[in-house]
Amino acid sequence: MNLQQRIDAFVKLGDFLGQFSNEVIEKKDNIEHNDLFFDGFKHQLKLAKEHNGWFTQENITYAIKSWHEALTESNLKKWLSVYQIDERSPKTIAIIMAGNIPLVGFHDFLSVLICGHKVLVKQSANDKQLLPYLSKYLEYINPGFKERITFIDSEINGFDAVIATGSNNTARYFEYYFKNKPSIIRNSRNSVAVLTGDELEEDLKKLSEDIFRYYGLGCRNVSKLFVPIDYNFDAFFKAMYHWHPIIEGAKYANNYDYNKAVYLMSEFNMLENGFLMIKEDASYASPIATVFYEYYDSPIQLREKLKSEAQQIQCIVSDGFVENEIPFGASQKPQLWDYADGVDSIEFLLSIQ
C-alpha cells in the first residue's frame, strides 16, 4: 500500500461510520461491504454499551460522529501535508490504549497505519468492542492491512517502538519497562477553563459541553475553573442547567451522591445544583460530578502558573487569554493535527528507524 491507498481506506471507513453518527442509524446504499458489516457493527455498539455503563448511546454516537467528520480526504491530506512520508520497511509499533471514552485510542491507531507501520494493539478492558471490528472493515477495504494489524491480550513482545497511555502510576511503570525502546508515554492530564466574568450566556453554555461530555471522563474535559476574585457563579449555574438530565444516569448519580456525602461529612465548602458540584481546590483532577475552581487576581500571574504547570494540563479553554487556547465548547472536538500532550506522534513515528 502507498500513502494514497491508506488515505483512501480510512476515508471509506469514515463513510461507513457516517451511518452510525446520528441518533437514528441509517443504512446507505453506496457504502462498500455494507451487507457484510452494517448489522455486525450495530451489534458491537450494543455490546459496548452493555459492557461499559459510561458508554451511553449518546456518547458513543458523539465519538463516532467525530471520527466520521475527521476521516475525509481533505482533512487527512491537510494533516499529512507537512510531513515527508516515504514508503519504507514497516516497523511494529505497540499501542497501549486507555479506555475512558469510546475509541479513545483511535488517533494513535490511525497514525501508526497511515505512516505505513504495523500496529500491535493492547486495548483497555473498558473499550474492546469497537476497534477490532473497524479493523476488520479496513482489511476488507484494503487487504494490505491484514498483515499490519494485531490485537493482543497478553504481554507485549516483538515491537520496535511504543505509544502507551495510562495513569500517573502506570506511566512510571511504562517508562521503566520500555526504557530501551523509542516511546511516547502519556500520563494523567486534565483540562481547565479560564473565566473573566465577562462571558456571555452562550459562552458558558458552550463550556458546559466541555465539562459534561463523556461524563467528564476525558483528559480534554474541563475539570478545573480559574475565576476572578468575587466571581458570581449564578450565571455559570444557569448556563449549566440544560445538562440536568445527566443525573438520570445511574453511574453518574451514584458518583454525585457519594462525592456530595464525602464533601458534607468533611465540611468542605461547595456549591451544587442537584447534578453538579463546584469546590474550591488547588488540584486539577476533580471527581465525577465535581468541578474544582480557584480564584486569581492577576491574569499575568495566572498565565505564568499555567505555563509552569503545563505538564498537568491537556487543554486550556478560554477566550483571548493564552496562546493555543481552545474556544468554549470545542475541547472535545480535536482536529487530526491536535496531538495529545502536545507531542507530535507522526513526527515520532517517522523517526523510527
UniProtKB/TrEMBL annotation:
Keywords: NADP. It comes from the Bacteria. It holds the Pfam family LuxC. SUPFAM superfamilies: ALDH-like (SSF53720). This is Acyl-CoA reductase. It comes from Snuella lapsa.
